Design the sequence.
């Protein structure tokens, strides 16, 4: 005859409560393991959801041609491959536009440098403003509207005029409420520009503002900014239907512009919203796998800890086991009791880890202004893994307890 | 008196084991019967085999040869689970060192056999409370063993032995750790239990304690030396 589950759990809980500190410390090991997997998975989930909106940074039917992919994975060979690529030059960009003829609704050129500082009068921004060289298609390609003043035009490009359009964050920073930035003269990295417009607000992605930039004509940028960097080409297809075709056409045009012979592989990348999401998925997989391995190691260690504590417990409670046997506890019930104690330790740790991990992960979600996320799949997986750990590492001590000889056990020192 | 039915029938029971290269005959071909409502003391010097006999009577140990019939069942041939069941249903133990679980209160200690008997929580509470009242500790049910005197602790142990209405109560030196006055109290309780119809077998090496019983069995070198009324 065996005890009811409730009875067994109650007994196990009572036993664990006797050594509160010891039980808590043992539990902690499991908690750390579960924490890492749950925290990482919650955070990745949060980022994943934010991507659905935030990473769709390119406008509709729009793709980008760049020298390098958004993220590079793999060993030195891959890295070198990308590092040796030539920048996309202004000449190549112009050739590309020519070869594309009228196959695209819009072709824009962008070149950016981070860490610029803008000022107007006494107002000075942090040196984290993105200075962007672009053209009139920058706004539509990025899903932005010019809400005050005007967009760049052909004249600005042709004459490389010293004009600038402000991202909404920069505008808000430099100009007081009610002040019209249009027509004012600002400085960016010491150079003077006349503000001709302000962009609408786009919001944040990955917890970073997308409105902290100043747009100047790309021709002016190439003249003035002494940084050799590669131009990004933004192409908007005429329709959803022609999107794929346009990409194929663009690859051909770009190969031509770059002077690639037939045998040579593309030395540029096409970035679409999908490819951005894809490259994020790569990160997600790598980080997720890493977290899983770390968690697994931590849980194995915690399992050894549980086994250790349970063995100590069995030795300490030899007399108790003898007493229980003398009043009629069958061996199987003794085994169950100790097994459930091990299980409670590991599941308790698991629960702790889940709560802490989900809490930490949701701090990330908070950064993205996302609602609370609970990674149900990983919670279930964690609890299952904890059960397996508890049972497998608790089995030997429990078996040892159940095999004690009652006469010897009753004689054991307390 | 001899119409009372047998509870225990032991015939040619032996327990031999080797210690080093020496064969120890802890019990050697013992024949012994107990009838219902017997109140017996097993006496003998240390090494006489009385503890071994106690362990076998209590189904904590098995004989190497012979027959041990408890309520008509041959215990000598039972497996571990059956023995656990017999310990639970048929036998109530009282130990010299009390053997209560220190972190459980009196009530929880007393109900332990009922838990393994599968008795419902409500009934357990009821029966444990009653058993504690029987030994005069109705007002101490929520005390832990450490908060009680030696005599009180042994009374809790007696309540635990009683609670599942066993066929026999086995007491191993129940007064060995108690002073004279307290020992008398405990023996009074055993006397009352015997008067109420219980079968009680106790092990002691004190003549004064044995004199409380109605039958004294003396062991020496694994054999019965005498079996008589005090």
Sequence:
């Amino acid at each position: 005859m065996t005890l009811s589950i409730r009875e067994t759990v109650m007994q196990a809980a009572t036993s664990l409560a006797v050594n509160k500190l010891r039980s808590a410390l043992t539990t902690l090991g499991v908690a750390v393991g579960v924490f890492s997997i749950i925290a990482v998975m919650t955070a990745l989930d949060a980022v994943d959801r934010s991507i659905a909106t935030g990473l769709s940074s390119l406008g509709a039917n729009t793709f980008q041609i760049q020298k390098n992919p958004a993220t590079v994975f793999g060993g030195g060979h891959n890295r070198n491959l990308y590092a040796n690529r030539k920048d996309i030059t202004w000449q190549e960009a112009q050739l590309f536009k020519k070869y594309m003829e009228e196959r695209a609704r819009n072709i824009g050129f962008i070149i950016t440098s981070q860490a610029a500082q803008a000022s107007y009068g006494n107002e000075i921004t942090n040196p984290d403003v993105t200075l962007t060289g672009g053209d009139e298609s920058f706004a539509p390609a990025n899903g932005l509207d010019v809400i005050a003043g005007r967009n760049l035009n052909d004249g600005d490009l042709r004459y490389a005029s010293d004009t600038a359009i402000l991202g909404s964050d920069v505008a808000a920073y430099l100009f007081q409420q009610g002040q019209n930035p249009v027509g004012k003269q600002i400085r960016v990295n010491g150079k003077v520009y006349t503000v001709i417009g302000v962009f609408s607000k786009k919001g944040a992605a990955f917890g970073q503002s997308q409105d902290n930039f100043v747009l100047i004509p790309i021709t002016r940028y190439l003249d003035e900014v002494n940084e050799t960097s590669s131009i990004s080409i933004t192409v908007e297809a005429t329709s959803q239907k022609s999107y794929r075709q346009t990409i194929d056409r663009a690859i051909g045009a770009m190969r031509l512009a770059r002077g690639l012979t037939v045998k040579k592989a593309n030395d540029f990348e096409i970035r679409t919203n999908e490819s951005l999401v894809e490259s994020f998925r790569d990160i997600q997989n790598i980080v997720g796998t890493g977290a899983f391995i770390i968690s697994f190691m931590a849980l194995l260690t915690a399992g050894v800890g549980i086994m250790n504590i349970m063995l100590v417990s069995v030795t300490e409670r030899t007399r108790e086991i003898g007493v229980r046997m003398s009043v009629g506890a069958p061996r199987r019930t003794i085994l169950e009791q100790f097994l459930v104690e091990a299980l409670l330790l590991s599941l308790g740790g698991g629960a702790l880890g889940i709560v802490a991990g989900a809490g930490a992960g949701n701090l990330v979600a908070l950064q993205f202004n996302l609602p609370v996320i609970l990674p149900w799949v990983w919670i279930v997986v964690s609890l299952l893994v904890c059960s397996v750990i508890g049972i497998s590492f608790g089995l030997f001590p429990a078996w040892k307890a159940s095999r004690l000889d009652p006469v010897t056990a009753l004689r054991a020192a307390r | 008196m001899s119409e009372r039915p047998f509870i225990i029938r032991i015939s040619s029971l032996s327990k031999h084991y080797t210690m080093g290269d020496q064969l120890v005959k802890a019990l050697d071909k013992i024949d012994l019967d107990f009838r219902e409502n017997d109140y017996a003391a097993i006496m003998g010097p240390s090494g006489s085999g009385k503890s071994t006999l106690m362990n076998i009577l209590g189904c904590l140990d098995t004989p190497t040869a012979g027959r041990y019939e408890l309520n008509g069942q041959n215990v000598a041939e039972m497996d571990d689970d059956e023995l656990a069941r017999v310990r639970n249903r048929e036998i109530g133990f009282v130990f010299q060192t009390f053997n209560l679980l220190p972190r459980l209160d009196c009530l929880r200690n007393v109900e332990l056999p009922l838990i393994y008997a599968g008795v419902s929580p409500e009934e357990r509470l009821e029966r444990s409370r009653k058993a504690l009242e029987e030994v005069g500790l109705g007002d101490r049910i929520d005390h832990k063993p450490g908060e009680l005197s030696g005599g009180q602790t042994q009374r809790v142990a007696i309540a635990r032995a009683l609670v599942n209405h066993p066929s026999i109560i086995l007491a191993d030196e129940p007064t060995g750790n108690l002073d004279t006055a307290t020992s008398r109290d405990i023996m009074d309780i055993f006397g009352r239990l015997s008067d109420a119809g219980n079968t009680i077998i106790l092990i002691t090496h004190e003549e004064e304690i044995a004199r409380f019983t109605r039958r004294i069995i003396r062991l020496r070198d694994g054999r019965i030396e005498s079996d008589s009324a005090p």
